[in-house]
Amino acid sequence: MVTLIRGAEIFAPEPLGVRDILVEGSRIAHIGEVDPAGIAALPGAQVIDASGLTACPGFIDPHVHITGGGGEGGYATRTPEIAVTDIIRSGVTTVVGCLGTDSVTRTHAGLLAKARGLEEEGITAFVYTGSYQLPARTITGSVVDDIVLIDRVIGAGEIAVSERRSFQPTIEALADIVSQCHVGGLLSGKAGITHFHVGSHESRLAPLHRLLDDYPIAPPAVYATHITRDEELLADAVALAAKGAFVDMTAGASTVESVRRYVELGGDLDRLTLSSDANGSLPRFDAQGRLIDLTVADQSTLFEQVWACAESSGLSLSQVLALVTANTADALKLSRKGRIAPRHDADLLLFDEGRTFRHGFAMGHQTISYGRLQVRGTFDAAPSQTTRSQSPPGRSGRD
Ligand code: ZN
Q1: Which residues are catalytic?
Q2: Report field, pTM of the whole predicted structure over 0.85
Q3: pLDDT digits (tens, 9 = 90+) for 73-105
Q4: Which CATH number fits domain 2-56+341-373: 2.30.40.10, 3.40.50.880, 1.10.260.40, 3.30.1340.30?
Q5: 3-state class of 116 per DSSP?
Q6: Which of 5, 141, 158, 172 sits at 20 to 30 Å (Cα–Cα) from 109?
Q7: 56 C-alpha vs ligand 1 centroid, how far in Å?
Q8: Would you call 346 helix, strand, or coil by DSSP?
Q9: What is the pLDDT of residues 328-339, one digit of tens each?
């Protein structure tokens, strides 16, 4: 299967100018000038005129509750699974799935099955073992074994610190899981990263600073998310990134301002990523810990905030795209992801001046063609089949 994408302005994410991209199978074969006549003569080859369009790598979302999350307000507040179409529509071609507060009714077996399902549906999906609480729940009984023996497991997360919903782990327990991940990563050639959920307690990132200051832990093994809760936490994240750790902002209404502030505070842009937290719950608690309300995070927020940052964060388009492509690939050690370069996976987006996706590719397969989704999730029914009226009485249409 060969596709020639002609004349797109390429942000790889660094600007490469107007060039052709040749895709062979699931990989990018060549970037430069390619003779279209030679390609068109190949059986099954496709030539796409991308003049006037901008090409960038498919987005990598390092924090998605692919099987849903939540439950902090009781069983009825467990959030739904994600659909592959929601992911693709938002420009995302690689996700890392995680559990959250609930690792009792949500399991890693389910998470792994969902990740494999998303791969069958056309995108790349990894998972973290563990959840908010330590000791970590795993598939095999061991964090190291999960990483070494299970193909999709690339680390542990989201492990909660400075958070009421954690089991208040000791620093030793945190050092233990980061070290297990590190060793698992060495033995398997994967990231072996530990992804930390940072809660709203005033201790903020202090536990992670102590890990880096007091233990022989390589800073890039630590990856902290939800760093935009307040100004002090953001400043703390700048300090953590200065030590070499990766930090991640959950996309939301304040993302543009947070990115701008991160830069003003001298934050290392190469260590910063954006994620969606999609299908996780967004609970609000009062000072007594009572749930005030709870909503569900949406994959599309990441997509919206990328463009909002490109408009008004003060960063260049290339710098903004790096937050959801090259930087995330570096954090997760996904050496074939996050860049438009020869031998990299053909995860590509082509968008027009209005920042609408005209074409999309995941592992060389076309996911969006002339603005239309080419992928359908297994249970994405035709609209007439999703109406509530066709469900049996007394049941919702969402089994
Ligand atoms: Zn979280």
Answers
A1: 277
A2: yes
A3: 889 989 999 999 999 999 999 999 999 999 999
A4: 2.30.40.10
A5: helix
A6: 172
A7: 28
A8: coil
A9: 999 999 999 999
